[in-house]
């Protein structure tokens, strides 16, 4: 009975992955029509270790991952706690908060490109109206482009964090809150001593999914900055795409893809281990 599912899994995931692994061992360039392609073994992987662009892309990616997830966790917890305390309008608030998450990332990127336009963007117009500095080229500045990308990610994916945390808060028994109030605990103490420890599994789950998503970020960066100015917003996912479809070096691009997969698997295994250890307590 599992055969149909296993066949679909093999066709959609296992076979393409195996094909990518094989291609990563060859020197295959789309501009070279000679066949067969020369076998280079692990040369594409050793090339990753000596590629300065890979190092810069990894630094940018780590900054993006840490910055976005940190802000989303803090902001998501605050919003989820506020929703948890609401007695009226909670369903409407949930629906409104989830709107950014259901918009396609490319559409979100285009939306923010127009909002932050240094000449005609809404943010520029509002800044001018209240006397704040305006006309800032957010995506054209090497110092501001990456924080601006992080802000776009926070706007779109904080609702996911709110959704998961809020679900975890709703699973806490009311008896714990009543006992804490009887003992004289205030709202902040309840959040710190009851709510936060209770939603640690949900926080680890958020870390798992959001780390995988942000580490592989491509579409938002491609639409807004294309890795610029210079290499200030070049991410490992964007560099892999550029290697394969701009430089036509498919063998090296496949090696980069496998490298991304392996790093994601290592980080995911770490989070899963923490989650299982938490469940075992």
Describe this structure in words.
This protein is mainly alpha-helical and 281 residues long. The protein is built from 14 helices and no strands. It has helices at residues 3-23, 43-49, 52-85, 90-97, 99-102, 105-115, 122-129, 145-170, 174-182, 187-198, 200-215, 219-224, 236-245, 250-280. The longest helix is centred in the first third of the chain and has 34 residues, at 52-85. The model has no long low-confidence stretch (mean pLDDT 90).
Which short descriptors sum up this protein?
mainly alpha; 14 helices; 72% helix; 281 residues
- Kindly estimate the percentage of residues that lie in beta strands according to DSSP: under 5%
Order of helices and strands: HHHHHHHHHHHHHH
Specify the biggest β-sheet. Answer: none
Estimated radius of gyration: 23 Å
Which regions have little confidence, pLDDT < 50, spanning 5+ residues? none
Helix content: over 70%
Number of strands: 0
What overall geometry do the principal axes of the alpha carbons give? globular
Quote the distance from N terminus to C terminus.
Answer: 36 Å
Individual helix count: 14
Average pLDDT, to the nearest integer?
A: 90
| Helix-strand category | mainly alpha
